[in-house]
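task queued by scheduler; priority normal; single chain, no ligands, no partner chains; default sampling; output format set to structure tokens
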Amino acid sequence: MSIKLIVLDVDGTMTDSRITYSENGDEIKSFNVKDGLAIASWRKLGGQVAIITGRSSSIVARRAKELHIEHFYQGIHNKKEVLESLLEKLDLSMENVAAIGDDLNDLQMLKAAEISFVPRDASAYVDRIANVILTKKGGDGAVREMIEYLINKEGLEEKYLELWD
């Protein structure tokens, strides 16, 4: 497996980029359960997962914990810098990284990754540098589409399906 780490942005990739506030000021986000199943599958296949997100949210922290995402960084201004530091810690290189993001703050990280993905509704500027423009929108299964693309690319389909036999 040449891709060993997938890096996920949150708003606009794992979610539809909407932030809803309740009358009490509570933040509400929706995550796609299909993305979660694909993330869990990737981990079962031996892959690692990181979330690197610009915003800070207890909701995202909860989702990362639910999915057993071992590398979780929020409130990050320079995502590429955090990724480089993580790779050093994990003894990996950018050739081992697939990343997904949707907006300008993801640009440098996406440029650095071996393979970069953007949801269908990403910024046109980010589309220009992406290796793969997904058919799904952020929050609508884009992360799952990315992971299944990687499973196919890495020749892991049989193992992937065996996880659920």
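post-processing summary
- The longest strand covers residues 48-52.
- The longest helix spans residues 33-44.
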